């Protein structure tokens, strides 16, 4: 293919992706009352060990350095505010990012698990995204699974000496995609299809949400990279304090 | 900035005991989610609409606008439940494409409607709580049920910070807009990134300043605030109990007689 042809292919691909976007897309919170009680409880119980680990870690950090409490709270508020702001999108629809990928890269996945559940409660009550009965399922997909994958990919890329920006992009983007896959599987387990069971149902949920979630993940990746570049260029001392750029001294 | 927060402070039910409101919202929510019946969902939806619009004083337009928020999720995921791809057509509808049918059954259609109603009714329970009860009151209820101190403290601080950061973010975004910072997609991505990193920096500085000022006011690990106390009224408690018992009774009745 010549350069022009390649450009044309990419352009049409992007356009066709964007045409699928419906207005007001938020990160994929399962809405209040959508899951049966059994699944609400199961997902809640699955979250408990992660939350406890995160809680003990946070408590230790705060006992060692009491000043950390305002910083951790600020981090939580930062994630919430990022997730409540409209992000730029090509079609002019209104979408929001999760912000947990960035949080996991900056503060580590354990802290994000506890902050995540707090942010999700605030999102449910103040923004009407997600809900109280589905809090367990949402916490697992957004505050545990997503951030852990983001953090893992970020560290892996660092080990493999992949370009830093690419690493951050992949971490945020794949973390988001993983959240979307986990949410689809959660929905599929609760509502298996009449023909084909939970697997067929999972494929359907993945397919239905793909047009909204895939562009969102890409945009989230790009924004996270831009934010981290900005941070590294003029907030180095602060990043050192939270232990983000230890190795870059 | 956060409309729901504003509404909760303006609500006519603001000075009702927060524990009562939480109990009502959560019990109704549970009845709704556990029963999963169309009748209960309809009743709860009507009850909460009445409470929110008439008793709490939220305008109908605003309430409907808020009900639209989860609609995208609701439509997409219910579609995924109702529509099936199968080699054999089901009884409600079937569209043939090649050797595969896009099809659905009456059972799943009915199930879908039930699911939509249950979800909307549950959302109305959540709205009842968030439209009438400010976050600080909810935190007091959490304290009453012995949620860990650290979590409550973090929630309190995060809640306070949200407004400071939102304010800063909006100021930055306004000035970016005024300087054509969102003229095309690439520029707006760049602007958003710059806004994000500046926001982080400001947040960091704020948190340091806040800690210093807390330290100066003898902060020793716990934040003490004076609570306004609105004692529960017997009348209200009775009403809530009657309401829940009636709902539960209908659930049991439907279960045995249908």
Descriptive overview:
Chain A has helices spanning 3-19, 37-64, 68-84, 100-107, 109-127, 135-159, 164-190, 197-234, 236-241. Chain A has 249 residues and is mostly helical. Chain A is globular, with a radius of gyration of 19 Å. The relative contact order of chain A is 0.14. The model of chain A is unreliable at 17-23 (pLDDT under 50). In chain A, 74% of the residues lie in helices and 0% in strands. Chain B has 258 residues and is mainly α. Chain B folds into two domains: 3-133 and 233-257, no CATH class; 148-216. Helix content of chain B is 72%, strand content 5%. Chain B has ten helices and three strands; from the N terminus they run αααααβββααααα. Chain B has helices at residues 3-10, 18-35, 38-55, 60-67, 71-82, 106-132, 135-144, 149-178, 185-216, 234-257; strands at 84-86, 93-97, 100-104. In chain B, helix 2 (18-35) runs parallel beside helix 10 (234-257), helix 3 packs parallel to helix 6 and helix 7 packs antiparallel against helix 8. Chain B is flat and about 70 Å long. Classes of the chains: A mainly alpha (249), B mainly alpha (258). At the A-B interface, helix 2, helix 3, helix 5 and helix 8 of A face helix 2, helix 5, strand 1, helix 6 and helix 8 of B.
């Amino acid at each position: 293919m010549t350069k022009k042809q390649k450009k044309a292919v990419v352009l049409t691909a992007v356009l066709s992706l964007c045409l699928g976007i419906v207005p007001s897309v938020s990160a994929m919170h399962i809405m209040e009352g959508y899951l049966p009680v059994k699944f609400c409880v199961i997902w809640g119980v699955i979250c408990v060990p992660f939350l406890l680990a995160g809680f003990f870690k946070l408590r230790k950090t705060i006992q060692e350095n009491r000043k950390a409490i305002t910083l951790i709270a600020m981090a939580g508020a930062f994630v919430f505010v990022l997730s409540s702001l409209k992000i730029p999108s090509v079609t002019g629809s209104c979408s929001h990012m999760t912000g947990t990928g960035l949080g996991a890269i900056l503060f580590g996945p354990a802290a994000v698990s506890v902050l995540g559940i707090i942010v999700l409660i605030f999102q449910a009550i103040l923004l009407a995204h997600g809900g109280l009965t589905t809090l367990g399922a949402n916490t697992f997909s957004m505050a545990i699974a997503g951030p852990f994958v983001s953090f893992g990919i970020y560290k892996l890329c660092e080990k493999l000496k992949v370009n830093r920006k690419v690493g951050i992009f992949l971490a945020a983007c794949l973390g988001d995609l993983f959240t979307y896959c986990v949410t689809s599987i959660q929905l599929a387990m609760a509502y298996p299809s009449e023909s084909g069971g939970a697997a067929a149902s999972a494929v359907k949920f993945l397919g239905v949400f793909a047009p909204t979630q895939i562009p969102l993940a890409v945009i989230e990746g790009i924004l996270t990279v831009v934010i981290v570049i900005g941070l590294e260029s003029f907030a180095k001392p602060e990043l050192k304090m939270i232990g983000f750029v230890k190795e870059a001294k | 900035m956060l409309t729901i927060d504003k509404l909760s402070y303006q609500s006519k039910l603001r000075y009702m005991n927060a524990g009562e409101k939480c109990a009502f919202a959560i019990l109704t929510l549970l009845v709704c989610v556990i029963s999963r019946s169309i009748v209960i969902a309809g009743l709860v939806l009507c009850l909460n609409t009445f409470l929110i619009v008439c008793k709490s004083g939220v305008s109908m337009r605003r309430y409907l606008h808020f009900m639209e928020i989860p609609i995208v999720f609701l439509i997409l995921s219910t579609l995924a439940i109702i529509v099936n791809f199968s080699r054999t057509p089901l009884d409600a509808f079937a569209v043939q494409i090649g050797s595969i049918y896009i099809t659905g059954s009456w059972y799943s259609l009915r199930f879908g409607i039930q699911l939509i109603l249950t979800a909307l009714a549950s959302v109305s329970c959540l709205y009842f709580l968030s439209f009438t009860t400010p976050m600080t009151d909810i935190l007091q209820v959490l304290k009453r049920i012995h949620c860990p101190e650290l979590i409550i403290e973090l929630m309190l601080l995060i809640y306070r910070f949200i407004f400071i950061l939102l304010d800063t973010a909006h100021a930055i975004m306004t000035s970016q807009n005024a300087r054509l910072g969102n003229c095309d997609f690439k520029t707006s991505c760049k602007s958003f990134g710059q806004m994000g990193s500046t926001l982080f920096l400001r947040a960091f500085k704020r948190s340091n300043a806040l800690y210093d000022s807390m330290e100066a006011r003898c902060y020793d690990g716990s934040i003490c605030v004076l609570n306004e106390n609105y004692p529960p009224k017997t009348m209200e408690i009775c009403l809530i109990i009657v309401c829940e018992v009636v709902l539960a009774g209908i659930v049991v009745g439907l279960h045995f007689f249908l």
